[in-house]
């Protein structure tokens, strides 16, 4: 992991007893940080409280005196880092998060469970860490004692992983051993990790990292947390870079008569998702179709079914963040269910959003592969 | 794996596969680009007559030295819908006659078309090519071959399943091409997804309507905007990916948008005129901005109405 750190929050500004939140915000438009910050603040509806804006080349700051500080730093054209901390006892964190979720050209980042687990390396073996893990909701629904006729009604509840979180607080060396004994079968993945990071310089901090790539500084040296933040951002950058080989590149030249000519094009590498799960493919197929078409509250994706033949189906799915339009086909290859993706248009942001959605809402065994990988 | 064809109508597939032969980004599969050919879809050409007549064949290409290829794809894709017609032979014959009209395309309109792409042609020699589905050809090969011979038209067929293109009748002016077509040519895997060109003037109206509407919805959703001005639509469609009708000039694009917009207002009830201004159109159901379920319902109703889903 990288050891670069940002000096984003000056120690003088930051009250030692407060938490500091770092959000990786992915943006599909090449905007200045102040434009996004303005959009967020205009929706905060703070009444007559005056927001002060400051802006320099890379960082823009919005603050309300004695209330809160919001800092937005543009990391690269598609990633901005939003930092928030409170100066009073009134927190706007919930409001802020729901606003970000409603602005559709931006989205939260994603730490895949396997990436999240790597942050344990920052604490020593006998440190206490807290693992927040979730059951695979599909697996739980299958084993619930709810009568079959009521399962539909409960479905929404089961799809919220936080409703069925398991929290474990133990020394790092024992954490996974305890977890596997407790749950017998490995059907869980880490969704949130709380740990102490220790550096020789600047020192120590207590930190939480979650699956939305949000980092919370709980206490300790802010600079230590910012080292972790830079790792989280780097992981996201790596993911987006990895997905860029599945998106198409096109370049158009405007001709003298006002028409546009396709002057450069690189074809997409086709890709697919594969899922491993224990039970009923039929049921999985129905749920997957619902997720990709009717979608769910608080999710932005939506779509329309094209056809269904037994458990196989195809649909068109749209992802608002980058206006991805994908034709998806669910089928089986040698008994392994697959979702084949033919993009009409997509970008790494859209692919990340779809992968995150499938992984969180369907099964953590979701794996993305290219046909020529 | 099941076959993922079907959503894009056959015309779009055949057109994009033809186009891919002329796009050197497909490297080894860009067989004609590798021989120095340049081609573009949906040209506007003129026919010499007393009154000026405009024709819009599916594709036009040149070897950049004087040979000009004009391709017709839509004609035979249209005939496939009526495979059991008793008078199919007559229909095929008629199609070949219609296509022969492209021989009268004025040299000046061809030269103008290529010059805007930076290609200077002096003299032109036209060869006509029809591109059709291999299955359709196999079923009616006798009549197609004899018509092609009579009207001196070259026949290419695309085998969608095997991803191959073949030449059946006629000779190319360029000997290298005849040589190339001695055996069947392998096509790139799938240039229609994402397509080089999403649709042309010849594309099925229903497909245009669906893409226009779904694109409009997607843009409004992304911006959380419940209304749009007519003057914003062209910019939106041209700068969406893949662009819609970007290969046409603005005036003609806007004529298409007017038709599609009024369909969305009057027939599909997706937009309505706004009280805020004469040029402003707003969503009939603004709930779609926040509810994925409403968006799904809108698109599903539309596709059912257009009969593009089962």
Structure description:
The complex is a heterodimer of chains A (373) and B (310). By secondary structure, chain A is of the alpha+beta class. Chain A is built from 9 helices and 19 strands. In chain A, strands 1, 2, 3, 4, 5, 6, 7, 8, 9, 10 and 11 form an 11-stranded antiparallel sheet that branches. A 6-stranded antiparallel sheet of chain A has the order 15-16-17-18-14-19. In chain A, a hairpin with a 4-residue loop joins β16 and β17. In chain A, α7 crosses α9. Chain A starts with 19 loop residues before the first strand and ends with a strand. The model of chain A has no long low-confidence stretch (mean pLDDT 86). With 310 residues, chain B is an alpha+beta fold. Chain B folds into 2 domains: 177 residues; 101 residues, Arc Repressor Mutant, subunit A, CATH 1.10.10. In chain B, β11 and β12 form a beta hairpin. In chain B, α3 runs parallel beside α6 and α8 packs across α10. Chain B is globular and about 60 Å long. Chains A and B meet through β13, β15, β16, β17 and β18 of A and α8 and α11 of B.
Share of helix among residues of chain A?
A: 25-40%
* Binned strand content of chain A: 35-45%
Order of helices and strands of chain A: EHEEEEHEHEHHEHEEEHEEEHEEEEHE
Q: What's the rounded overall pLDDT mean of chain A? A: 86
Radius of gyration of chain A: 22 Å
